[in-house]
Amino acid sequence: MEYVVISFLCLAILLYFLLGGADFGAGIIELFTSSKNRSKTRNTMYHAIGPVWEANHMWLIITVVILFVAFPKIYSTMSVYLHIPLVIMLIGIIARGTAFVFRHYDAVKDDMQWLYNRIFKYSSFITPLFLGIIAGSVLSGQIDTEATTFVDAYIFSWLNWFSIAVGLFTVALCGFLAAIYLIGESKADADKKRFIKKAEFMNVAAVLFGALVFIAAKMQNVPLIDWVFKNNIGLIAVTLASLSLVLLWYLLLKGKTKVLRILAGFQVTMILLAISYAHFPNFIRLKNGDKISLFESIAPIKTIDSLGWGLLLGSLLILPFLGYLFYKFQQKEE
């Protein structure tokens, strides 16, 4: 049953990045849109994510619950030494969601719309930035459980070049996902062209920040190159990610947009696989050289069995209705 729990953990992280990340990316796209086109972008974005945006946070909740119940050592280590970026990320999620609701459903349309719009845009940037910083921190080897000062324990555990580079890379990937998703939601050719340009911009940014991640990894002795390029799975994943990107842009130039979302999601999945496969089952690298493994930090077997059956039965009840929700709201209007 431990493999069931770990599979749900990996799936929840992946789906939150693909779905929730695309939602954050929509705000990033709006942030980098000119004022004359911002209203059109906002309307297209709202049509795409408005009805289902809150459902995407379900995957984050599942991730937190699994870590709390099944891997308490990992949960406590992250909660203690990464509490600052975690709090900032959670504040960003709350601020973004609140602004999203108020700017669409506020009964009074006044100057507060100006504030709601800015909170939504900037929190859409800050949240995936710190999500990436957290992800980079667990891999960076900078978490010092033996630190004797506040700065060493709670600041430099996440405030380092590698974590920041991963955060910026995450922002670019979220923006790229959102731009690709929004192309399919656009009805006018002018809107499609605008989102294609945004996708190109975010694609270039992702490549540049991806290179920065490798440079920062080299500087801080993170064996990222070994994880990605010195095992067959990593090489295959990188190759497939590159080929899917080429195919994506080929189909885009041909005007075929139906499979773009699948290709974009597949590409990001392969990137995550390339990074994480060689590192698995280790979840956190510590500064003293130790690693916290999923298998070594797992909860007692009775707890895992109960959680595993709960996840299996819960998925049978929730996933079909969640799929139906997405299906209904993605149907084109007559």
Using the CA coordinates, give the radius of gyration: 20 Å
Specify the biggest β-sheet.
2 strands, antiparallel
Shape: globular
Q: Please, what is the average pLDDT? A: 86
Instruction: Detail the poorly predicted runs.
Output: none
Percent of sequence in beta strands: under 5%
Distance between the termini: 46 Å
Query: What is the N-to-C order of secondary-structure elements (H for helix, E for strand)?
Result: HHHHHHHHHHHHEEH
Number of domains: 1
The order of strands across the largest sheet is 1-2
Q: What portion of residues is helical?
A: over 70%
Structural class: mainly alpha
Put simply, the count of helices is 13
The total strand number stands at 2
Transmembrane segments: 6-32, 53-74, 80-102, 122-141, 161-183, 204-221, 233-252, 259-280, 307-327
GO molecular function: electron transfer activity; oxidoreductase activity, acting on diphenols and related substances as donors, oxygen as acceptor
GO cellular component, one term: plasma membrane
Protein name: Cytochrome d ubiquinol oxidase subunit II
